[in-house]
Amino acid sequence: MKIIVDAMGGDNAPEETVKGGVLAASQSDYDIILVGKGEEILRVIEKEGYKELPRGIEIVNATQVIETEEDPAMAFRVKEDSSLTVALNLLRDGGGDALVSAGSTGALLSGATLVVKRVRGIRRAALAPVIPSTTGSFVLIDCGANSDCSPEYLIQFAYMGSFYAEDILRIQSPRVGLLNNGTERTKGTQLQLDTYGLLEKAKQEGHLNFVGNVEAKDAMMGACDVVVCDGFTGNIFLKSIEGTASLIMSQLKSVFLSGPKTKVGALLVKKDLSALKEKLNPDAIGGTPLLGISKPVIKAHGSSSAQAIANAIKQAALAADADISGKLSENAHKVGGQSKCNLNQRNCDQKKRGCI
Amino acid sequence: MKIIVDAMGGDNAPEETVKGGVLAASQSDYDIILVGKGEEILRVIEKEGYKELPRGIEIVNATQVIETEEDPAMAFRVKEDSSLTVALNLLRDGGGDALVSAGSTGALLSGATLVVKRVRGIRRAALAPVIPSTTGSFVLIDCGANSDCSPEYLIQFAYMGSFYAEDILRIQSPRVGLLNNGTERTKGTQLQLDTYGLLEKAKQEGHLNFVGNVEAKDAMMGACDVVVCDGFTGNIFLKSIEGTASLIMSQLKSVFLSGPKTKVGALLVKKDLSALKEKLNPDAIGGTPLLGISKPVIKAHGSSSAQAIANAIKQAALAADADISGKLSENAHKVGGQSKCNLNQRNCDQKKRGCI
After folding, report:
1. Given this model, what pLDDT does residue A238 score?
2. Residue B20 CB neighbour total at 10 angstroms
């Protein structure tokens, strides 16, 4: 198993990305291909105390770097020798089994779509992070790749999320819920109303375990295993989870630091609180799969630590093993949903992108 | 000042609503009109130890109750002698200065719109709860009244939220942010793109302190005082805050109960943790104003305690004092936004409701 790592992508690159790659190689029998500025990569490896390349580590040189503030689609086209472009070409050409990048989400999304391509029949790739809930966790799909969505996209997201939950999270017959502002059949905008019908049909045909509409709060309480929504809504959901967790943790810190008594209290619960923090820590899972691309691509958090990169690499290896893309291809006839797109011309961004 | 309370609305009615009304009357010089089944209301008052009606309490009889599971619009029309209908008629006819209900949101929304009417020129009433942030709090508007929105609705929400923040929360020149999936000008769906332009224009004309797009996480970190969004997105935002808070609090409880050491730790921080819980407690604020209605209407949480009802009554009195509706009327020429509605026919729910 060979995992390609965009060594220059992310806020802490190349230090943490390289250290993460070395860590993953030392803990497994994967080969790691670090793509980026060779000299800088070697410098990090030397600083880590290695006099020669550690076992399982390869370096592929790329002279350019895509910065976060660059226009994602443009940067990817203009910088032909960027670490991301070289890494994606390598993945497409079979030089590795999966790719991990902590760089710009937009550049990764457009790059993966243009170079590695989507699975045939899949209309949009989607970001699908795994979110903790009171009873375990759930897959949130899409969480930011596609702001404007049609019901056809959403039914495909439902299948992709369901396959991921089944094959990676090992959940039998995953419960699929449609994120909505109420549980009643009549809730939501036209998008949710139309998608509900498609999901119900897929359930009746025995393809999906659709459990109906779910509210954001109930999703956090473990109401289902896959939460389906458009990328705009998914992003708001994800970011408000992050925001609320930050708010509570910062308040908790002030509570613990407020006096000598509470400081002692804090010491007594410190270890257990760390476990809680770990559960809510994006680094623990490491990355978000970009589902619908013909080969496994994992987006690691922009601020990933070495440990987070190592975790994302493990996740990439699991995804390559499970062959979600292959499963999507095999099930293309089901996954296709309805052929008519429900987006009106005004709201449609497919035309711009040359999709229809 | 007279505040009308729908004594039969809410999960804990009439016990908590009546006790809340009595509590508010005992703590202030407001007169409270409890609307509902007279005998049941009197029974609660007697159980509280009163032998006659407490000072400041009036009862107006209504023989019917709207249940949460009923179709809101239908129930409101069919049950002409429901506590909500009688309370709304009373408000319209000048029998009180503001209304509080913990009953069905949908019934309150359609009832208030049909009976008390919207401020002239306002296209939609919106729910605008006050949400805690790391630096204080912000108004979230709309958080569930209108799933499908046009840019015109959103610019009106921005004005309504801004007036509320200024007059009730006492924030000078409130910073208005547009909830989006990124801060860049080009982010979001067509709705956000079009609304951005209108908000920018209102800023240039000196009417609104628009600070640009805000992400959900940054809103929780205090990026602005008013967060503007459609009701679908607002509902997802609010419910995920609630869900995350529940998740963390339940995990925290397990941490504290996990062993004798942590139990001692819990005792030491108990008091300060309660203060934190209070900050995140919907009861502490009490209610969500329904802005855009010609008289003050406050939706209290369905599971409101007596204290929450009392707080909602205080909030209703503040709203009546501040006369937000009057301010909206005075500023109708600014608040009107653009006259053309951007919703296409398919997504438009106005036609059904006879709005255009």
Report:
1. 93
2. 31
Task: Collect all residues of chain A within an 8 Å Cβ-Cβ radius of residue B346.
Answer: 190, 342, 344
Query: Locate tokens 């975790």: which residue?
Result: A311
The answer to whether the CB atoms of A232 and B188 lie below 8 A apart is: yes
CA terminus-to-terminus distance, chain A: 37
* Per-residue pLDDT tens digits for B205-250: 999 999 999 999 999 999 999 999 999 999 999 999 989 988 888 8
Gap between the Cα atoms of B44 and A233, Å rounded: 44
- How close B153 gets to chain A, by Cα (Å)? 15
Cα–Cα distances in Å, from A78 out to A14, A71, A245?
21, 10, 38
Contact B181 A218 (CB under 8 A): no
- Calculate the CA A38 to chain-centre distance: 27
Which of B57, B136, B102 is closest to B286 using CA atoms?
A: B102
Select the residue of A133, A258, A276 nearest B255 (Cβ to Cβ).
Answer: A276
Q: Which residues of A touch B242 (CB under 8 A)?
A: 216-217
**Over the range B273-312, which residues count as b (16 or more CB within 10 Å of their CB) and which as e?**
beebeeebbbbebbbbbbbbbbbbbbbbbbebbbbbbbbb
Is B232's CB within 8 Å of A233's CB? yes
| Identity of residue B304 | S
Contact B251 A276 (CB under 8 A): yes
What is the longest distance spanned by two Cα atoms in chain B? 65
The separation between CA B78 and the C-alpha centre of its own chain, rounded to angstroms, equals 25
Q: Are the CB atoms for B176 and B199 separated by under 8 Å? A: yes
**Euclidean distance between CA atoms A123 and A139, whole angstroms:** 19
How large is the ipTM? Answer: 0.87
Tokens representing A298 are: 């994992």
Whether the CA torsion B116, B119, B123, B127 is positive or negative: it is negative
| Best CA proximity match to B156, nearest among B193, B121, B200, B201 | B121
Contact B246 A220 (CB under 8 A): yes
Q: What's the CA gap between B320 and B151, in Å, rounded?
A: 28
Partner A contacted by B256 (CB < 8 A): yes
Separation between Cα atoms, residue A214 and residue A183, nearest integer Å: 6
Q: What is the mean pLDDT of residues B38-58?
A: 96
- Chain B interface disruption, residue of A69, A181, A342, most B CBs within 10 A: A181
Kindly give the residue spans of alpha helices, DSSP state H, lying in chain A.
15-27, 38-47, 72-78, 83-92, 105-111, 151-167, 190-204, 216-220, 231-256, 260-279, 282-285, 306-322, 324-330, 332-335, 350-353
pLDDT recorded at residue A283: 61
- Euclidean distance between CA atoms B264 and A262, whole angstroms: 11
At residue A336 the predicted structure's pLDDT band, cuts being 50, 70 and 90, is: low
Strands B287-291 and B57-61: unpaired
Give the CA angle between residues B193, B199, B202 to the nearest 5°. Answer: 150
pTM score above 0.80: yes
Query: What sections of chain B are H helices per DSSP?
Result: 15-27, 38-47, 72-78, 83-92, 105-111, 151-167, 190-204, 216-220, 231-257, 260-279, 282-285, 306-322, 324-330, 332-335, 350-353
